[in-house]
Design brief:
The complex is a heterotrimer of chains A (97), B (484) and C (477). Chain A is mainly alpha-helical. Chain A is flat and about 55 Å long. Helix content of chain A is 38%, strand content 7%. Chain C is built from 15 helices and 11 strands. The two termini of chain C are 26 Å apart. Classes of the chains: A mainly alpha (97), B alpha+beta (484), C alpha/beta (477). Strand 2 of chain A pairs antiparallel with strand 9 of chain B, so a sheet runs across the interface. The complex binds magnesium ion and zinc ion (ZN).
């Protein structure tokens, strides 16, 4: 039920470059994972609200006060490729997912 | 697509359907999810912290003022404010997006179901607002070449990343490019009235994405929509939509089909261009943001925001027309220039006619005030009052006005100091009139023989002799008597 | 620990000496165990020196000023490399401290190093670290458990007196159980996650690991508390270490869920846990059999949620701002090449699964469904906890397995069978050693309770610890 195309599409979405062997491997893993997860599908969840947070916490908002930022040198010190105060990235090709 | 000219033949056969998504940067001191400054124009990557850089382990916290601004915008746009709203992650990779997801509101936005009324050719129309949600801004890209596609590389500045935005989504009920422009103009004005955004399109504080489709006039089926991204001026908005109306109309005329896609507006070329070269529709894998609990607002808090909303543009237009009898043109001027409008309201407190105030404010004063800043309403009222009383003639008004701008003195003091009071004492003026007539016996003769337009010349001479202070009415009367 | 603090207090020994001693232990044992990715010898000695100076001036920051600690390498430490066990971050040096680290520093603790883990905390054996496998101190051919395997092994081997781990589905309790130490997964929200590299934010918690229950409680008191930088942080008061009074067991209602004692449970583990339960009963506790039927769904629910959240949390590693980068012609290819080079195979596997369950056509059937089942699991647990004070189970179905024994990822995922439920429902869970099996391998017992019931869990854990030690002495006699 999951073909190589699905796997390749997921890899594209996740920006992973996979070898042929990896594609085969993840295709199998995905299938097995979904098969084992079949029993979840059978649980009756009509009228059940999903849980996205383990414990309910009231949202405490932050006052609009400017705090200290990092120094530019510190920020750029992490960058694999920086130039004139900026991070540099190669050509941006539009149109991939 | 070949060059498309305006007014394609078949266009009359289609209805245009336009929906807008407007991103507005909120006027907060610190960013949406961290406390970095939002100030414009700082050196690149100097207003960043672990949160807005998406450093491993950093976590977002919501700025209260951003929620306040978004709520205010929702209320001003007649929306329902949802006391319970949630945040979601929109996942996609792009160099300007530090976490590779945008924190936004998808399933449960802060505001829903509102509307904005505005004038299109003297006709009041309404556009539905489907929803308003909060989200974070991305960083800024600078391209090495002239455009994104022609650049070998790009540079990224994350100063802007994480600034609070609202996205205002309209229903697809806008019918032509000009209307889209008027809608956004009115929206922008409204947002500046309530003070939630500086709405500077040139700095990217207000950006429009437009969805546009054409459908045959006799059809109920909507056409395929095309999204035009990132329109950041009114001109670009209108031109891009006009271009799309033509482009899509021509394709449909030729029996073609419209491709559902995103396009950008190339201002220099004057056309829209496809952004998507290949691939499937984006799959953003939206899911609830686990780092932020839902937002639960108190009704009393929402009411306190509602109470803080000032008079909005459309209300104000109505009041200027109805209460003060201004024309649509005059009222529109004041609605668009709230600073002038405030002075108008202040002056209206004095015993002055609205007409006189409007004429004054929209006259020379407007130019001077733009150059040098506004005068105190009290001092303007002083000037308009002595004009009304006839203390000075119309000719002296400009002189006094100039002096008001360059000193702290009142109009009365200026008039007194410079001796600008109007001369209307008959005996005093009689001498001047007599002098002028005595000096021009030939002209007096010609006047008497029928050249009645010479009266103006005599008036001018009297005015000149009195440095413009003579009351024209009195001068006219005395001249007529002397010449009859 | 008590003795250590006392000797520091009377200046019998200096922080320098204590830290030096532990550095020597590390030098001696760690080549065989490999609990550490980074040991900060210089920094540790400097911090110890500062602590000694403070103590000399009577200005100790806390009773623990100068006591060494190790921290799992997915917790950000300013100026000290934080790798998450990944090639992706092998050179990443954080610009800020996690809130838990700030809290430790405020108490004067000496950070001696960063411990090994499964890459980005994805695993149950600490075999999936880019920096090599960690070995179980009790048997070097076996795994220490994971993903906080380094933190558990370091404590078990005496390299540090205590440590911090993180727990998303059992990553503190399972290695604690395998290594014979105490480990707590706190109530969700009681410990700040700020600066803790996310695996699955709705499940992750930082917790203490120590040889003794008392020490784990003392360490928990140092790290627990509200943090305005974490919006999911609870507005709970700070944690107070409880009195160790056997009276706590009188009429204590102990729930024993039958599902955790069924097929698949190692008989020696069952025997040890039931022994502890009997002892509790002897001391006044009331055992109540109960059912937690939804645990049958816990692993699949957990995996769906954890992979989904992880696929999103790990998207930021794109080679632009920090971390590994492999150059390419265009940005998308650079992203893909950098990520493929930086992530190991288990991380990629989970990203693939997570991307799948979140993608447009599968979201409803998988992710949303799992969130709803999570609600049922949470209700099941809270319902049980309305009838009993604590729930006691084995921590893991078996003792530590051999390195390399679990090649199949799905089999590995079953390591969290007894522990994931606490993460899914948010409740606290404590693992305490409950004896050694016939191979001399430690086994663990898990105590779960309602939200913010940590004090009770520690008290019960303390009584179990006393009982286990008592019988061990008995056995030896
Ligand atoms: Mg948006
Ligand atoms: Zn920031």
């Amino acid at each position: 039920m999951i073909d190589r195309h699905d796997v390749m599409r997921m890899a594209r979405l996740a920006r992973l470059e996979l070898s042929e062997e990896e594609i085969d491997q993840y295709q199998e893993d995905l299938m097995r994972f979904l098969r084992s997860g079949q029993k979840l599908q059978q649980v009756d969840v009509a009228e059940v609200e999903g849980t996205s947070h383990a414990v309910h916490v009231a949202h405490e908002l932050r006052p609009d006060q400017v705090g200290t930022s990092l120094r530019q040198e510190a920020v750029l010190s992490l960058g694999p490729r920086v130039e004139q105060g900026f991070f540099r990235v190669p050509r941006i090709v539009e149109g991939q997912e | 697509m070949s060059k498309v000219s305006k007014g394609v033949l078949g266009m009359a056969n289609y209805d245009t359907v336009i929906g807008l998504e407007i991103h507005v940067a909120l006027l907060t001191d610190s960013k949406f999810l961290c406390s970095c400054s939002t100030a414009f124009g700082a050196p690149p990557n100097s207003q960043c912290c672990p949160v807005c850089l998406g450093l491993p382990g950093s976590l977002p916290t919501i700025n209260e003022k951003a929620v306040e601004c978004a709520t205010k915008a929702g209320l001003a746009l007649n929306c329902q404010i949802n006391l319970f709203s949630k945040f979601d992650r929109k996942n996609y990779f792009y160099p300007d997006l530090p976490k590779a997801y945008q924190i936004t509101q998808d399933a449960y936005p802060l505001c829903s179901r509102g509307f904005l009324d505005y004038y299109v050719d003297d006709q009041l129309v309404r556009t539905e607002i489907t929803r308003i949600h909060m989200e974070e801004e991305a960083g800024k890209l600078i391209h090495s070449g002239s455009s994104i596609v022609s650049s070998d590389y790009s540079l990224v500045d994350y100063n802007r990343a994480g600034i609070a935005l609202i996205e205002i989504v309209t229903a697809p009920d806008i019918h032509h490019p000009g209307q889209a422009r008027l809608f956004v103009e009115q929206l922008r004005l409204l947002l500046s009235y309530i003070g939630v955004s500086d709405t500077k399109m040139e700095e990217g504080s207000l950006r429009v994405d437009a969805n546009i489709s054409l459908k045959p006039k006799d059809s109920d089926l909507l056409g395929t929509k095309v999204e035009i991204k990132n329109l950041n001026s009114f001109r670009a908005l209108e031109k891009a939509l006009e271009y799309e109306v033509s482009r899509q109309g021509e394709i449909l005329d030729q029996g073609g089909t419209i491709r559902q896609e995103s396009r950008t507006w190339d201002d220099r070329a004057g056309r829209t261009m496809s952004m998507r070269s290949k691939g499937d529709a984006p799959d953003y894998r939206l899911f609830p943001e686990p780092d932020l609990p839902p937002l639960c607002l108190e009704p009393a808090w929402v009411e306190s925001i509602r109470a803080s909303i000032p008079e909005l543009p459309l209300e104000r237009l109505g009041r200027l027309e109805e209460q003060f009898g201004l024309s649509r043109y005059e009222a529109t001027f004041f609605v668009h220039y709230p600073d002038f409008c405030q002075i108008f309201f202040d002056l209206a407190e004095y015993d002055l006619s609205p007409k006189a105030i409007v004429n004054f404010l929209m006259g020379d004063y407007a130019r001077l005030a733009r150059e040098r800043g506004h005068l105190d309403a009290r001092r303007i009222a002083g000037l308009l009052t002595i004009v009304k009383e006839g203390l000075i003639g119309a000719n002296q008004e400009g002189v006094v006005l100039d002096a008001l701008f360059s000193s702290e003195k009142s109009a009365r003091e200026i008039v007194k100091e410079q001796g600008l009071e109007a001369l209307r004492d008959s005996t005093e003026l009689q001498g001047v009139v007599d002098g002028v007539l005595t000096a021009n016996p030939d002209l007096v003769a010609r006047f008497r023989s029928g050249e009645s337009k010479l009266l103006g010349y005599f008036v001018g001479q009297v005015m000149r002799a009195t440095r413009g202070k003579a009351d024209p009415e009195v001068v006219n009367k005395l001249l007529e008597e002397a010449l009859s | 620990m008590k003795e250590l603090i006392q000797s520091l207090d009377v200046r019998e020994v200096s922080a320098q000496e204590i830290v030096q001693h532990h550095l020597e232990e590390i030098a001696q044992h760690d080549p065989g165990i490999h609990a550490f990715i980074t040991v900060d010898q210089e920094g540790a000695l400097r911090q110890a020196d500062d602590a000694d100076r403070r103590r000399a001036q009577g200005q100790a920051l806390s009773p623990f000023d100068g006591i060494p600690i190790a921290v799992k390498d997915n917790i950000s430490t300013k100026g000290l490399r934080t790798t998450c066990g990944s090639r992706m971050l092998e050179d990443y040096v954080p610009l800020f401290d996690a809130t838990v680290i700030s809290r430790l520093r405020r108490a004067g603790l000496v950070l001696v190093g960063k411990t090994n883990l499964d890459e980005f905390a994805m695993g149950s054996s600490t075999e999936y670290s880019a920096f090599g496998v960690t070995h179980n101190p009790h048997d070097h051919s076996r795994v220490p458990g994971g993903s906080s395997g380094g933190s558990a092994a370091a404590v078990a081997a005496g390299e540090v007196p205590w440590s911090l781990g993180t727990d998303t589905g059992g990553s503190i309790r399972q290695p604690a159980s395998f290594c014979g130490v105490v480990g707590l997964k706190p109530t969700y929200g009681w410990v700040s996650r700020y600066g803790v590299v996310a695996l699955a934010p709705s499940l992750d918690q930082v917790g203490p690991m120590a040889k003794r229950v008392e020490d784990a409680a003392a360490l928990f008191a140092l790290i627990a508390g509200n943090d305005p930088r974490d919006a999911t942080s609870a507005k709970a008061p700070s944690f107070q270490v409880p009195a160790w009074d056997p009276e706590v067991l009188r009429d204590l209602r102990v729930g024993v869920p039958e599902e955790f004692f069924s097929a698949g449970l190692d008989s020696q583990v069952e025997h040890a846990v039931r022994g502890c339960l009997r002892q509790l009963e002897d001391q006044g506790a009331v055992l109540q059999p109960l059912s937690l039927a939804t645990n049958a769904y816990a692993i699949d629910t957990y995996l769906t949620l954890v992979t989904a959240e992880a696929s999103s949390c790990l998207a930021r590693y794109d080679g632009v701002r920090y971390g590994k980068r492999v150059e390419a012609e265009d940005s998308n290819t650079m992203f893909a090449k950098s990520r493929s080079a930086g992530f190991g195979s288990e991380v990629k596997r989970r990203i693939m699964l997570g991307t799948y369950v979140l993608s447009a056509n599968h979201y409803e059937a998988y992710y949303e469904q799992a969130q709803k089942v999570r609600t049922l699991i949470k209700e099941d647990v809270l319902d049980a906890l309305s009838q009993v004070d604590v729930i006691i189970t084995p921590t893991t179905p078996t003792a530590a397995f051999q390195i390399g024994a679990k090649r199949d990822p799905l089999e590995m995922y079953l390591s969290d069978l007894f522990t994931a439920m606490a993460n899914l429902s948010g409740i606290p869970a404590l693992s305490v050693p409950c004896g050694l099996n016939s191979h001399g391998l430690p086994m663990g017992i898990q105590i779960m309770g309602g939200n913010f019931s940590e004090a009770l869990l520690f008290q019960v854990g303390y009584m179990i610890e006393q009982g286990v030690e008592g019988s061990a002495r008995h056995g030896q006699l």
